[in-house]
Structure formats: structure tokens, C-alpha cells
Amino acid sequence: MQLQLHPEYAGVYQKHRDADTLYRHAVAAWQQRGEPLAVAAYDLTWTVAGALTLVQELSRLFQAYNQVLWQHFSYCPSCGGQCCVQDASDVRPFDLIAVALLGESTPTLPARIDAGPHHCIYLAGTQCTWPATWRTIKCWSFYCLGSQLWDAPEQRYRAVTGALQTVVTSHLPSPLCRWEAVQGEQLAAHLEDPVDFSNTLHRALNAIFVTPFQARYAPEALSTPAHQATTASQPRPILLLDQDLITFVMEALATVREGVIPPAPPGVASSPDQLLADLEQLAWIAEGQPSNRVPLLHALYQRYAAAGGVNNQPESTIWQQMHDQLRTLL
After folding, report:
1. Among 54, 21, 19, 24, which Cα is nearest to 37's?
2. Closest CA to 105 of 132, 84, 85
3. Alpha helix positions (H), the chain
């Protein structure tokens, strides 16, 4: 499709490019001045070489992390990157600073791109257009069990999480170990929810490096829309704030209780009674935001995965909607 027609063109791609220019100039200014950057709260003093080492060590961490995901478990290879969807890239200031320190470039996309409107704008075929030495932390750290039906999904999530915790603990750069010691918080403990892990890692990187760097070399970036577009907030309750989800759950509950829904389509491992229980659990997850919400949502999604192929059929309505809601959340 045409680049400018992609939904992420103006709100994501263009803002990323503006922010990239700001941070690239800031890194160049630091490299030219060569001044050390002290962060007293963590007893750290950064040099350009030290910051580059941090980036390289994190790159090696995530190379090992993804080796686990792609070579030791079947989920990512069998899925083939279905998580590369619209609004998934989540580019942050550290991502842009890292690319600049590595001497790499963020993607400059052609006038016509391979990505469709529901894909991440940076997807070209099955490949990411970000440099292989630095993908965004959120994309690098994300994992799930894919769209297949699995037995004991929570046990499977624990297996993946445990393997990744070993990688993170053994490869974590010493400045981030310093952050853990000061904060009394373990980054690897957040891996059960990979989006929470990404947010927490960025929070740590902001504290030990990004915010002091911005204050010294990019103060103008702190108040610009380009910066705001790449600075993520703290993890939000993604379900509570989704009015479409709330509306769907309320309407679906009423429909099921009235007993006016068709039987589940072939392959959907549910029934009206099971759907009622699942809707109630979905409402509970939305309200309570439990720490294990990802495996819980995945377990729900498994029951409705087959409904994704029944579009435009009479029995598709509520089952398809349940599938779509769960797939969007995951």
C-alpha cells in the first residue's frame, strides 16, 4: 500500500522520524563534547563509550532472549510474527538513542510499503525494517503462545517465563543491576507479562540514563510532541479503559442470559454456558488486572481461536466478536 495511506504514517512514523532527528543530534553533541554524565542517585558516571557498551550489552541480552524464544520453544516459529500489528512498535527515546550510538539508522520507508493497514508500518514481508542490532525493546521482548490451541497454557507460560528469566538475570548489564539494588526490584520478575517487562525496563533506563541525558543534551525534546509520542506512560490498565470491550461484555452477557445465541461454530471449544463463564472471567480480568492476565487471556482465546474463520456466516456473530476482542487484547 502507499506509505502515506497507512494508519500509522502520521501519528507514528512521522513522529518517530522527528524524534529520531532530535536524539541523533543530541548524541552527536555528546560525542563532540565528550563530557561525562553523572547520575548521583545510582552512583553512575556515563561516557559515550560506556553508554555504547550498555546498548551493546542489551543487544546481546535480547539476541540471547530471542534465541530462547525461536529455538527452544515452538510458539514464535509456528506463529511467524502475527504480533507485528498496527501500533505495536512502541518506539521510546532509549530506542532512538541506542540506534544513534550504534551508528545505525531508523527505517526510512519507501513510498510504497509491503505492510497492510493492520500490520505494523515497519513490517516488510515477514521481516522487520529496524536494524538487526537494535529492534525496539517492546518488540524484542514480546512473546506469547501464538494462536494455536495448547493444553495447560499457564504451565507453558511459566516454562517460557522461567527460561527468559535465566537469560535476563545472567545477561543484565551492571548499570541495570545497580538500578535493581537501589530500587529493590528485579526486572526479571516482570517477565510474566512481557509488556510490563518492557515498560519496567524503560523505566529503569530512563532513571539511570535517559532522563539525565535529556536534561543535558536534549532539553528541548522534553516538551515537544515528537518526544511525547515516543515516551510511554506507566503501564495502564489496558482493559479498564477500553470502552468497546466494556460495551461488548455487557451486551454479550445480556444476550447469553436471554438464551438467544446460536450454537458455537465448528472448532470452537465452548458452549453458551461456557461463554457466559468466560465473559464473567473477562470482566473480572478487566476489573482486577491480575498479574497473570496474559496467560488467562490466552487460555480464553484458545477456546475461540477457530471463530476467526467464520466471518459472514450466520453463527459467527457473538463467537466472532469474542474471538476478535480476545485477539485484540493479546
Report:
1. 54
2. 132
3. 15-33, 48-71, 75-79, 93-101, 137-141, 153-171, 174-183, 194-205, 211-217, 225-230, 243-258, 272-288, 293-304, 317-329
The rounded distance, in Å, linking the Cα atoms of 65 and 171 is 9
Give residue-wise pLDDT tens across range 48-92. 999 999 999 999 999 999 999 999 998 888 887 778 888 888 899
Q: Which of 94, 34, 23 is nearest to 58 (CA)?
A: 94
**What is the pTM for the complete model shown?**
0.73
- CA atoms of 229 and 27, how far apart (whole Å): 19
d(CA 101, CA 53): 9
pLDDT at 226 over 50: no
SS3 46: strand
Torsion, CA 153, CA 159, CA 160, CA 161, rounded to 10: 100
Rounded CA separation 324/308 (Å):
7
With beta carbons less than 8 A apart as the criterion, state whether 17 and 224 touch. Answer: no
- Please name the residues in contact with 228: beta carbons below 8 A apart, sequence gap of 6 or more: none
DSSP code per residue over 108-145: ---SB-S--TTB-TTEETTEE-S-TT---HHHHH----
Region of 34 (left: φ > 0; alpha: ψ -120 to 50; beta: rest) is left
In the block, which residue shows the cell 509520542?
Answer: 229
User: Which residues partner with 39 through β-bridges?
Assistant: 44
Q: How far apart are CA 13 and CA 6, in angstroms?
A: 10
Please name every residue paired with 247 in a beta bridge, in sequence order, or none if there are none: none
* Mean predicted confidence (pLDDT) in 221-249: 54
Q: What is the DSSP letter of 151?
A: S
Band of the pLDDT at 109, cuts 50, 70, 90? very high
